[in-house]
Design goal:
There is one protein chain. Helix 7 links the parallel strand 9 and strand 10. Helices cover 30% and strands 17% of the residues. It is globular. With 674 residues, it is α/β, with parallel strands linked by helices. Bound molecules: flavin-adenine dinucleotide (FAD), NADP nicotinamide-adenine-dinucleotide phosphate (NAP) and iron/sulfur cluster. Flavin-adenine dinucleotide binds next to helix 13, helix 14, helix 17 and helix 21.
Length: 674
């Protein structure tokens, strides 16, 4: 028995088969499904996770027919020809003692294409395409396609399937009145509305036999008005059990819901209380999900009886060996998913192959080769921000002798500021991970040491990762005593005023506004605070958990203006899947976001701006500059004179559109070649 995580490593007996532990790798669309050599790349990607110890894997969503596509030409399984390609994946996973299920996902009205269909013709608020109600014949055909897809999955060697019945996709669109306006036997009463999922399950079970896993992802908390009531959810769960489902997975929130469910400000395991309510209502095992990113949290959820199994998805992008590291009681070496969505979900929504901010190898396993070196080099890395850390650890892991020099007294670079922003506490985990990796791979870390180009002579290779210098915009009065930089604010070097204008509404401007508008405990630390702030009824009297519930937003005691020169949405360049949360959060706290301004003057009366050709004075006591950055590459020229094997990485290389994803990716790719 594993002493640290006894519940996590308890096998789960499904009667006809046993899962070796309680960890499920949840479904994620990675985009590999659609690229050249995608099946080979997927096989390698899944094989690494199977090798890493996960008990059960669920693939990304695969459509049962073209109408069910999420986007034009996204992956579908409708023929033996394609099923044969999937055998690459199933064979790779089965080399290890792991099981894999194929997720069948029909997007319904969420399909970003003109062929999408739904229960009724109620257009989705998040797709520009209209939708068409399925006819009776269309419904029968769709059910047949789900069945056929399951049989093809069985043929392809999968151990089972997961039916995607949540997140607002087609099945969900049948279940609730919000989207199902039918008057025939598939609409109207609740019994009629749930006929569609029940028929699908029954028909699949008939065809695949009893020794095939059927997981149903049940929307337990819709988080939209007009969603299911708790009683309805329980009723459906019981019917699903009777119809032949082996496991019920938890779905939280529709994609159109305006409540964050997996972003970094969501507390860890914040929604496991929902699954707990279902425990005991059915006799089949229940899986809980959402923001479980450490073995400690997963174990606690199981130990507290919130579920029989835990689903983690993004943590397997961040670290394929998550489970084995936990098993070896070595969780400190886990590269923790910080729930930023920047390289996974944001990529998926942009049609790019997913990756991971903290692990650029994810889904690119066949592209980046970290083989051991034959001849070890003496390497100096200057700067211990994300770029320098990633470079140093990667090079040392490959067998080089690495010295990492940092001028401050701690590693982490700008992540030390990111981690103090309320809702971004997870960023600390990346620093913790790198710290452990530096000792594991014997990197010689020299803190409080400022680089001098002459030092380069002692090394065969030098990587300059000295980061950035904040940009100082040219505004009359920029040297006024009211003006401070975001670094002074976040490092606690200045007293913060009560009325503030922030110049620049990029990622950092938003973070600074969040930091300044908060008081008391960060709601990302406490589930009850988070649910109150976002208006979720944890007693589940409200339909969908939200109908008629008023959010209880903590008061912001400061007057804050967040400004940008560009016209258009403030913060338009923030993450695709998280930008709306930041805007929503600041609007709730009455931060005034103003676009299309030009900065005229700073003086004792405040910040003079021009907006729509009208002059205005923002009468503020402090002006914080968050106007982007410039590369700190001042050492390059002199260092090259001493050692021609010198390169710039991270912000020192390029500040334009720099973020940690870009910095770490570049560093790892570069260290893979040295
Ligand atoms: P840095 O992190 O700036 O590190 C450079 C290091 O070099 C520093 O530790 C510095 O002390 C050291 N150094 C400089 N000169 C010398 C010298 N002469 N000798 C020795 N050492 C030296 N990015 C995201 O992707 N997502 C986010 O959510 C996000 N949030 C952020 C929030 C905040 C508040 C801030 C400030 C930044 C955030 N970023 C975010 C940006 C991200 O942190 C940076 O893009 C990233 O840190 C750049 O990495 P780097 O290693 O190139 O530079
Ligand atoms: P940024 O996102 O590029 O934003 C810079 C802001 O400054 C913009 O709003 C820009 O808008 C303004 N600006 C630029 N030049 C200016 C000038 N000369 N005068 C006045 N305003 C000027 O950069 P950042 O906020 O410094 O963030 C740095 C990096 O960290 C970014 O890549 C960001 O994505 C990343 N980050 C990400 C997150 C996240 O949540 N994903 C959070 C924090 C940071 P206008 O030109 O319209 O005025
Ligand atoms: Fe997690 Fe961010 Fe990596 Fe996505 S990109 S897996 S959210 S750390």
């Amino acid at each position: 028995m594993n002493t640290n995580y006894p519940n996590l490593f308890e096998p789960l007996d499904l009667g006809f088969t046993t899962l070796k532990n309680r960890v499920l790798m949840g479904s994620m669309h990675t985009g590999l499904e659609e690229v050249k050599n995608g099946y080979q790349r997927m096989a390698t990607y899944f094989e690494q996770r199977a090798k890493g110890g996960v008990g059960l894997i669920v693939t990304g969503g695969i459509a049962p027919n073209f109408r069910g596509w999420v986007a034009p030409f996204s992956s579908k399984l409708t023929s033996k020809r394609v099923a044969k390609k999937h055998q690459l994946v199933t064979n790779a996973v089965h080399k290890y003692d792991a099981k894999i299920c194929l997720q069948i996902l029909h997007a319904g009205r969420y399909g970003h294409h003109p062929f999408n269909v739904s229960s009724s013709n109620v257009k989705s608020p998040i797709s520009k395409f209209k939708t068409k109600a399925l006819s009776e014949k269309g419904i029968q055909k769709t059910i047949n396609d789900f069945v056929k897809c399951s049989m093809l999955a069985q043929y392809a060697g999968y151990d089972g399937i997961e039916i995607m019945g949540s997140e607002g996709y087609l099945i969900n669109q049948f279940i609730v009145k919000r989207t199902n306006r039918r008057t025939d036997s598939w609409g109207g009463s609740y019994e009629n509305r749930i006929r569609f999922p029940l028929e699908i399950v029954k028909r699949i079970r008939q065809e695949v036999g009893s020794n095939f896993i059927i997981i149903f992802r049940l929307s337990m908390l819709d988080l939209v008005e007009g969603g299911s009531s708790w009683e309805e959810v329980v009723f459906l769960a019981k019917k699903l059990e009777k119809s032949g489902v082996s496991l019920i997975n938890t779905g939280i929130g529709w994609h159109e819901s305006r409540i964050p469910t997996i972003a970094t400000m969501v507390p860890r395991g914040a929604f496991s209380w929902v699954t707990k309510r279902m425990m005991g209502e059915v006799n089949i095992p229940l899986i809980t999900t959402n923001r479980i990113n450490t073995p400690e949290k997963a174990e606690k959820i199981l130990a507290d009886g919130h579920a029989d199994m835990v689903s983690l998805a993004r943590p397997f992008l961040a670290d394929p060996d998550f489970v084995n590291k936990a098993k070896e009681n070595n969780s400190k070496e886990i590269n923790t998913c910080i729930a930023c969505n920047q390289a996974c979900l944001d990529h998926a929504f942009k049609g790019k192959v997913a990756s991971c901010l903290v692990n650029p190898l994810a889904c690119h396993e066949t592209e980046i080769n970290l083989d051991k070196v034959i001849k070890s080099k003496k390497i100096l890395v200057v700067g211990a921000g994300p770029a320098g850390l990633a470079y140093a650890v990667t090079a040392a892991k490959r067998g080089h002798q690495v010295t990492l020099m940092e001028k401050s007294n701690l590693i982490g670079g700008q992540f030390n500021m990111a981690k103090i922003i309320p809702g971004k506490e997870e960023f600390y985990e990346t620093i913790r991970y790198f710290n452990n990796m530096l000792s594991k791979y014997n990197v010689n870390v020299k803190l409080n040491s400022t680089f001098d180009p002459n030092m380069a002579a002692n090394y065969e290779y030098v990587a300059l990762a000295t980061g950035i210098i904040p940009r100082t915009p040219k505004i009359d009065g920029i040297n006024h005593s009211k003006v401070v930089s975001y670094i002074d604010v976040l490092k606690g070097k200045v007293k913060i005023a009560n009325s503030i204008a922030i110049i620049g509404a990029g990622g950092i401007g938003f973070d600074v506004a969040e930091y300044l508008s908060h008081s008391g405990t960060s709601s990302s630390k406490e589930t009850s605070l988070f649910m109150k702030e976002w208006g979720v009824d944890t007693s589940f009297i409200a339909r969908g958990g939200v109908e008629g519930v008023k959010a209880d937003i903590p008061k912001n005691n400061r007057k804050i203006f967040l400004l940008q020169r560009r016209s258009g949405k403030v913060g338009a360049n923030l993450g695709k899947t998280t930008g709306w949360i930041h805007r929503f959060s600041l609007r709730n706290k009455e931060v005034k976001m103003i676009n299309g301004v030009s900065y005229e003057l700073i003086d004792d009366s405040g910040l003079h701006i021009l907006k729509n050709n009208q002059k205005k004075v923002l009468d503020v006591d402090q002006i914080i500059i968050c106007a982007g950055q410039l590369s700190n590459n001042i050492y390059l020229e002199k260092t090259l004179k001493v050692n021609k094997n010198t390169e710039l990485i991270g912000g020192a290389f390029e500040a334009l559109e720099l973020d940690a994803k870009k910095a770490i990716d570049q560093a790892v790719r570069s260290a893979a070649k040295v």
